[in-house]
Amino acid sequence: MSENLRKSEDTRNTSESFSAFSSSETVLDGWSPEETSFSGQPVVTGRDISTAEVLSEEELCAEIMSPEQLAESREYGRISLRYSLLDRAVDLLFLGLMAFLFTKPLIGWLVQVFPFLSGSGVFPTIGLTAALMTCLTFLHAVISFPLSFFNGWVIEKRFGLSNLTPFHWFRRYLLQLLLVFVLNLFLMTAFLFLIRLSGSLWWAVVSVLFFLFSMVLGCLVPVLVMPLFYRVEKLENESLMERFLELTRSTTLRLTGIYRLDLSIETSKANAMLAGLGTTRRVLLGDTLLKNFTDDEIIAVFAHEVGHHVHRHILKLMSGMFFASFAIFWLADLALRFWLGGSAFVVPDYAHLPVWTIPFFLFVMSIIGMFLEPFQNAVSRKFERQADTYALKHCGSAGAMRSAFIKLAVQNKADPFPSKWEVFWLHSHPAIGERIQSIR
Ligand SMILES: [Zn+2]
How close is the Cα of 383 to the center of ligand 1, in Å? Predict the structure, then answer.
């Protein structure tokens, strides 16, 4: 939940947050909304890699892009990293201050102004939670807006990656804010009542119910939410569909269709994803990818997605998250006990847990999430490598796969080799340079 709140201010992460909900897999890290001019061409594409020797990092960078492109990608990576870290710090500070200093006075003021919000009955609690969440969302938006705008529009525009006018960016920002607000409001109200109803075992109950909820959301997002931000239309391309079906023939992947996603409304970056669960399972290909990639390269990208399916990565990630959520909510319960009673053995009055504990939960879960992220990312990177290996074996052309990755690096201005700690802490995908190196 804190995650959702955190993401609310950063429209650059729109699709990332979508992918979190829709249990989808994308080709590259940080696939984000914004322009369409594919300005940079790779220096070399699709050379005969069967004889390719192992290149050093410098040699590979020189093969992928020109020195100017490399310098620009590194600069883009550096600036994006700096501001997204700052963004996270501001969010944590905001939640910390709300949790420990400002929420109680704020609630006192709300109850004074709106007397019908006092009392611990069902309706006053819902009303007070709604009022608190409204204040939190509004304050957070005000505080983090400059950073969001800088992160989501200014930097992207400066590097020629954004296609949005400030007005259009702002409209999407507001829409995302509204969606996240509604979702958070529902989740936090449910959260509070589940704790009140289930007592000291709330963390187990909440884990199970939130897991089920995220499954439902995973089905709904690609169908209902994605079209609010992008035009999603079925791709009528017989020959490509034929080749896609050929790749999935020996698997259990049943495609409901290939869809074209007009990413270019926002960004010039290319990406593709396999999204949804069950009957909503679909391949989404960005128009930015379709425009600049050959059929063979698109097949290589798709084969990577099939690799995720064959290795059951979504299922594994979701079960991992399921078990992790037990630990997260249990730790949150422990933190609550210490906070309210000073000891792990103090049992709080769960049945009357006050609304002012909500920011505390958001803060604690943000901290836990921060420490959990490297583990989650390590698993994700392992899965990405497995999917790459699968694609290499099945796409039919290592050269096409290599040139697809090179194009992705150039088009998305991805630093081929970001610092090791950055990859360790923040990246769900291996460095693109490493991925290209492994295609031999
Ligand atoms: Zn992937």
Answer: 7
- Split into its structural domains, the chain has a count of 1
Place of tokens 């009528």: 236
What is the Å distance from ligand 1's center to 269 Cα? 16
Q: Which of 325, 99, 186 lies closest to 333 in space, CA to CA?
A: 325
Enter the pTM of the model.
0.82
The model's pLDDT over 219-260, given as tens digits with 9 standing for 90+, comes to: 888 788 888 888 888 888 888 888 888 998 888 888 777 888
Q: Which domain holds residue 59?
A: 2-437
CA of 304 to the centre of ligand 1 (A): 6
How remote is the CA of residue 325 from the centroid of ligand 1, in Å? 23
Q: Is the pLDDT score of 277 beyond 80?
A: no
Measure 306 CA to ligand 1 centroid, in angstroms.
9
Give distance in angstroms: CA of 26 to centre of ligand 1.
Answer: 5
Using alpha carbons, list the distances in angstroms from residue 100 to 106, 108, 193, 322: 12, 14, 22, 29
- Sequence length of the chain is 440
Cβ atoms 176, 14 nearer than 8 A: yes
Residue 348 to residue 370: CA distance in whole angstroms? 26
Query: How far away, in angstroms, is 50 Cα from ligand 1 center?
Result: 23
Instruction: Give the H or E element holding residue 190.
Output: helix 166-198
CA of 301 to the centre of ligand 1 (A): 9
Query: What values do phi and psi take at 60, rounded to 5?
Result: -65, -45
Q: Rounded to the nearest 5°, which phi and psi values hold at 285?
A: -115, 125
Q: What's the gap in Å between 28 CA and the centre of ligand 1? A: 7
Q: How many CA atoms lie within 13 A of 3 on its CB side?
A: 16
